[in-house]
Amino acid sequence: xxxxxxxxxxxPPGVCYLDGTAYSALPxxxxxxGERGVLTKSQPWKYPDxxxxxxxxxxxxxxxRLIGATPDxxxxxxxxxxxxxTAARNLPLPFGQRILRMQHEFPSQALVWDRLASERGxxxxxxxxxxxxxxxxxxxxxxxxxxxxxxxxxxxxxxxWSDAALVSLERLMQVLREAGATIxxxxxxxxxxxxIDVALLQPDFLAFPxxxxxxxxxxxxxxxxxxxxxxxxxxxxxxxxRSSGIPAPGARRYD
Length: 255
Hints:
Blueprint: H1 28-42, H2 54-67, E1 74-77, H3 80-89, E2 98-102, H4 111-120, E3 123-127, H5 137-143, E4 151-156, H6 169-178, E5 182-186, H7 198-201, E6 205-209, E7 221-225
């Protein structure tokens, strides 16, 4: 059993805070790190190394360990929506094929796919909420529906946003890979409370923020890009991801 973690947070006795799914309380150590970060800009003469890459690379390496990746597979972003948009920008979307997603999905994992389906002539298939709550069986049925167009992209999540129902990515991804589909995962609801191993799952892209179960700040997110998806274009081009006009190696090009 996990012992009490109360001493790690600035939560007064008598306060029971439960909204970790949307606005988690920061641990004292995270608050201290944030304050140190502010000081590097408030008193920059005291922090000559603040603009070096060491802190970013440390965060990249920690993220890689968390999901079974390598640091070269990780891009640092400001949100999950940026991660999903990066994936969408770099995927082939053949006319007439399907984009598959689940009903009542979080907007970051829905809006861009809905728009692209309309713009590029793809069939948008939104798997309806199953009466029995089985969010694994329902997508499996949709994937193998007789006569349906091939799936170009499947937008998935390990835990459904609206009700936290478990989605067995292992089962879905095996079938999707056999069908030749590209797989984009939003792991926001799951990472930090259940193990996620990209070596096992083999998604094309997987995005997540720090503000929920990872007990971090808003405006910080990460994108895993599989090795064969690391030659695309970022959402914007800057001195970090394209220094001297040369794209950064690996997923860093998406920073």
